[in-house]
Amino acid sequence: MDIQQAKFATRAVHAGQHPDHDTGALVAPLYLTSTYVFTPEKMDRYLAGDKEGIFTYGRSRNPTQNGFQTKVAALEGGEAALAAGSGMAAIALAVLGTVHSGDHIIACRTLYGGTFALFSKIFEDLKIEVSFLPEMTTAALDAALRPNTRAVYLETILNPTLEVVDLPTVLAWARGRGLRSFVDNTFTTPFLCRPLELGADVVVHSTTKYINGHGDHVGGIIVSDAGFIEQLRSSVYQELGPVPSPFACWLGLRGLKTLHLRMRAHCDNAMAFASWLERHPQVVSVAYPGLPSHPQHELAGRLYQGGYGGMVGFCVRGGLKEAQRVINRLQMAYYAVSLGDLDTLVEHPATMTHGKIDPATRARMGIPDNYIRVSVGVEDVDDIIADFHQALTGR
User: Fold this and answer.
1) Distance (Å, rounded) from C-alpha 218 to C-alpha 207?
2) Phi and psi (nearest 5°) for 16?
3) Residues 6+ away with beta carbon under 8 Å from 183
4) CATH second-level architecture of 3-30+62-256?
5) How far, in Å, CA of 80 to CA of 264, rounded?
6) Are strands 311-316 and 371-375 parallel, antiparallel or unpaired?
7) According to CATH, where is 3.90.1150.10 located in the chain?
8) In whole angstroms, what is the distance from residue 375 CA to residue 266 CA?
């Protein structure tokens, strides 16, 4: 069977992994090595550009890393992938493989706090300009376009407000103007949405989140065409050296085998939880693309296959102190950074992921002090609801 042509669940289990040739071990071995023994003939072939099956040093290639990259690329529908030591490393590498000093990027106004800091601080020092747009409409994009614009950067679902961008429209606009488009697909994963099939040039993930799904791995990955990935590997990746550990890649491989099962559970629980929150008297508003009340519900229904993700946001009655009181009363859900774990995790964006952003900018992003973001886990949804009910009511 051609695994590339198999259905998603089959690719999740089998792509990038094969029984060990020497021992027959079903689970591929973990290659904990920094260097490799080779022959002069192999090196000649490597230097001539034929790198198939040749490993020289852990900063460039590792068999465990290769398996992880192959599996993610197969699930995203990309030609190749490149793993990095964290999600932010993947984002920085991918974008820096395209833009340089004096170039300009167009991005959504609301982004993950780490990405916003990279774009607004580090890139400013590198003299790379970024325009953050409140709406990614063609009119707004046309107005932001400059002669030195090189890239457009989006998130499949905006973090943390859970707004949905019209990806096909924006990606077609970028392609029509010769701009490279980047999409952070962390929140939806390729189980729900595959931006490359919608016209994106590059997809990035924090594999720490749903890709791994077990809270024991930190990593990132870039998926694109083989040419762009090899360009990255032989330039900024090789020289900056943000490689993941083989063990992190092995954990990513293990996590991906159950991605389709976990995402169904996350989506089902999130829908039930969001629907319950919307009826709660202590809740002012709920952000979840699966709710008919969500402003982009219809768009999300067209973009996503099989659900609307496991992320839910809501505003409690009252301000910062009331939001903190609710969080402090939770007994099963954990107040922690990150998302996409089996456990339900709760985050307060105004003081955590976006806490270093000034209040006025946070307000423009749509992040009020009473907003709570929930990564809905795979526990029994009745227990998740019971925990939040007692936290919201104080009893």
Assistant:
1) 7
2) 80, 0
3) 154, 155, 156, 167, 171, 195, 200, 202, 203, 204
4) 3-Layer(aba) Sandwich (3.40)
5) 26
6) antiparallel
7) 259-393
8) 9
User: Whole-prediction pTM value?
Assistant: 0.95
Structure tokens at 224: 């694109």
The set of catalytic residues is: 59, 112, 184, 209
pLDDT in single tens digits along all 395 residues of the chain: 677 789 999 999 999 888 888 888 998 889 999 998 888 888 888 888 787 778 888 888 899 999 999 999 999 999 999 999 999 999 999 999 999 999 999 999 999 999 999 999 999 999 999 999 999 999 999 999 999 999 999 999 999 999 999 999 999 999 999 999 999 999 999 999 999 999 999 999 999 999 999 999 999 999 999 999 999 998 899 889 999 999 999 999 999 999 999 999 999 999 999 999 999 999 999 999 999 999 999 999 999 999 999 999 999 999 999 999 999 999 999 999 999 999 999 999 999 889 888 899 998 999 999 999 999 999 999 999 999 999 999 87
Provide the CATH number for the domain formed by 259-393 in this structure.
3.90.1150.10
Does residue 112 contact residue 199 with C-beta atoms inside 8 Å? no
Structure tokens at 298: 């219809």
